[in-house]
Amino acid sequence: MRTTIGYTVESIGYVIGAQGVVSFASQTFFGTEWGWLHKVVDLPSTAYLGLVALGLALVAGGVKTRKAAERRQTA
Q1: 3-state secondary structure of 36
Q2: What is the value of pTM for the model shown?
Q3: Could you report the per-residue pLDDT of 57-66, keeping only the tens digit for each?
């Protein structure tokens, strides 16, 4: 079960991080809106960097949870 949770959290982290990168890059460098995140919330460019950090934290937490579960199963 922890392995499944780890994969799920990691996958959500990838999506959030990717949307943060795309939204930040589109607003900062092109002055347009890309991705779907801007349809949900209207944030300034720097706030999207916070979403990138959140995505990275979720990926790291998911990997840690998954690896811990795999270590328990093999022990």
Answers
A1: coil
A2: 0.83
A3: 999 999 999 8
